[in-house]
Amino acid sequence: MDTGLKLSKIPFLSCLEVVKILKNHNVAFLDIRDRKKYVRNFAFGAINCPLDRFQFVINDLVPDKKTFVIIIGANNKEIKVIYSILVKNKFINIYFVKNNYRDWNKNQLPCWSGEFTLCKAFGEWVETTGTVKNIQPQDLNKLHKKKLGTFLQIDARPKKEYELFTLPFSKHCSGGEIPAYLNNKKQKKTIIVHCAGRTRSIIAYQTLIDFNFQNKKLVLNGGTQNWVLNGFERSLKIKSDLIKNKLNHKKDSLLAKKIANKFKLPTVNTNCDVKNSYAFILKSEIIKNTNYTMWKNVNATTLIQNTDKFIAATSTKIYIYSDIATSAVFTCIWLNRMGYQAIWHVKKPVSKQTKQYCKKDFTDPTYFFAKRHLNSKKDAKGYLNWEHNLIPTLKKWGCHNPWNSVKNKKIINSKHPMHKIYSLFDN
After folding, report:
1. Which backbone phi and psi does 330 adopt, to 5 degrees?
2. What is the pTM of this model?
3. 342 domain-assigned
4. Does position 351 have pLDDT exceeding 70, yes or no?
């Protein structure tokens, strides 16, 4: 596409000028290279938005037109195309990194690798600052053989992933609906949570603490990947029976309000203007969904696990609604802990609040340790080692507190780690 634009008319900033913006402003830092290149090495905090989908998703990723949009990874031809798209969509603070990664690396600015890396690092931080108690695969296998009726084992991933593979005796309930799921169950069994790796099980474990569940709790160390590494077999193509569980909405609503008050979550009770904000309606797997079309629909656990697929700006407001109140509270707790401005939209949005979202679902193949879920012990081990190295990398850069401790009940107004990290590199 020849836009007719001259590069001299397009705003470029040096790496150090970019760092000053990343330090202080509401910013969306976008890397437009293809996914395969991106996961190998990218600037800290940069969200992947490849050129083939840029024009379709940019308004979803960055709803506030005043956001500082910083682009890295584009060649001269791509720069012209992207700039034209952003101007057409009425963005007013548009900048490109001068000389891209050549200067970024020359200035020794922070880079790392992986898929949904910031979310994975956050999961590691939750374990580092919390009181997560692990169970090793060998010990869980012994429980399977000798004490099967003494525990409830929950796979905290969404249904689609659970039904591909899980562990023997696992029940399905993605993390965002665990409070609603367990609130109806009067039992004193030990609760063991797991996912494919670590992040979602750690989040699920801490959620049990957040929502005041007194059961003994354990996380399967390393999830299904570590289970395979220890020589045990997964269960394949097991159907979820979560939908069969009845939900007491009144009881769920009371719990949601209690926990929202515990963490002093920001809430709105009336329909508000979300034009320049993020607005998510959480899809449920425990009840039949109402067909909402006015806001973007996403699974609560997926939103927390894959935040950078949906949210690019650091400080734009995020409104959350769910037919299951505890699911909305769950999501707001975790987004606020991660440094976002999440608000519980208590009442159902009305149709006049409709936003236009991209209907096309862009999906990416797994490029990072691509065979980790296909019984490759090499990739599973490599991936788990990578996760363990994320917090040490942040500390190596000098950031010893990228987020607040999960023991801290004050979770609102947390600073996004992008601002913290680049404050260390502002020369």
Report:
1. -50, -50
2. 0.95
3. yes
4. no
